[in-house]
Amino acid sequence: MRLDGKIVLVTGAAQGIGRGIALRLANEGANIALVDLKTEKLESVRGEIEALGRKASVFAADVSQRDAVYAAIDHAETALGGFDVMINNAGIAQVNPIADVMPEEVERILRINIQGVLWGIQASAAKFKTRGQKGKIINASSIAGHDGFALLGVYSATKFAVRALTQSAAKEYASSGITVNAYCPGIVGTDMWVEIDERFSALTGTPKGETYRKYVDGIALGRAQTPDDVAALVAFLASADSDYITGQSILTDGGIVYR
Ligand SMILES: NC(=O)C1=CN([C@@H]2O[C@H](COP(=O)(O)OP(=O)(O)OC[C@H]3O[C@@H](n4cnc5c(N)ncnc54)[C@H](O)[C@@H]3O)[C@@H](O)[C@H]2O)C=CC1
Ligand SMILES: CC(=O)C(C)=O
């Protein structure tokens, strides 16, 4: 699964799953363009990648802004000398019963989780075509993109949408030699789950930590997922070993959702 010399852009790379993916792919030989809103943390990840002997670039962008995503890809190409793989990882959670959801919060999550992925697909495919090369696009969905979760209804809808975009884009870009796939993690111990757990507590009165524990207890393999567990699948999807796979949204959850 070596990625020697490949140029990979990762959004949401400042922490959590995105950071884990960036480090894993750098370990496989890739040079990484790091994109996020949190520039201080991005600089720290850049240091970790350079310590592995790989090149890294940092670009601050809000993935919900189409122009910013195009600019991030241009920057990656210029800074690192090419562009081979796009990883649309950035996303936010939102915990609210359907009865209480309000327009502003729906608009915010749709802009980041759906439009962010859409602009990432569109801009990276355009760049691969301009460069006259093949490419790989890899999107973050979730187990919540296969099953709707209570109190995570709008979030789940965005992750179902990522699967739809992944399938449609795979069909539209296959003839250009571009593959499009998604990874669907389960319960990963990142800041996102700290936030989800706190919000469940506030809404239901469940003691802090209980919701996370309950979900982890439901995992067949008996432990929470790490960013590196997710990164192992993404490394495969970024590598030549996955060249004959497109349009798939692949579960990596330790045994929660079975499809
Ligand atoms: N943590 C989990 O259990 C799971 C997470 N996922 C998905 O994996 C992806 C990464 O999640 P985590 O690392 O857990 O989350 P996280 O909250 O720890 O990290 C997300 C990163 O994305 C960045 N980000 C958020 N909005 C952005 C925007 N508009 N523009 C640029 N960057 C932005 C944040 O600054 C942050 O660095 C998300 O798409 C999430 O929905 C999927 C399944 C499970
Ligand atoms: C954050 C997320 O996608 C789940 C299902 O936990």
TrEMBL record:
Keyword Oxidoreductase part of the UniProt annotation: yes
Coiled coil, from the record: none
EC number assigned by the record: 1.1.1.304
Entry keywords, A to Z: NAD, Oxidoreductase
Coiled coil in keyword set: no
PROSITE patterns found in the cross-reference section: ADH_SHORT (PS00061)
Known catalytic reactions: (S)-acetoin + NAD(+) = diacetyl + NADH + H(+)
Record-linked InterPro entries: 23BDH (IPR014007), KR_dom (IPR057326), NAD(P)-bd_dom_sf (IPR036291), Sc_DH/Rdtase_CS (IPR020904), SDR_fam (IPR002347)
Domain Ketoreductase: 6-186
Superkingdom field: Bacteria
Similarity remark: Belongs to the short-chain dehydrogenases/reductases (SDR) family.
Name of this protein: Diacetyl reductase [(S)-acetoin forming]
Species whose genome carries this gene: Asaia krungthepensis NRIC 0535
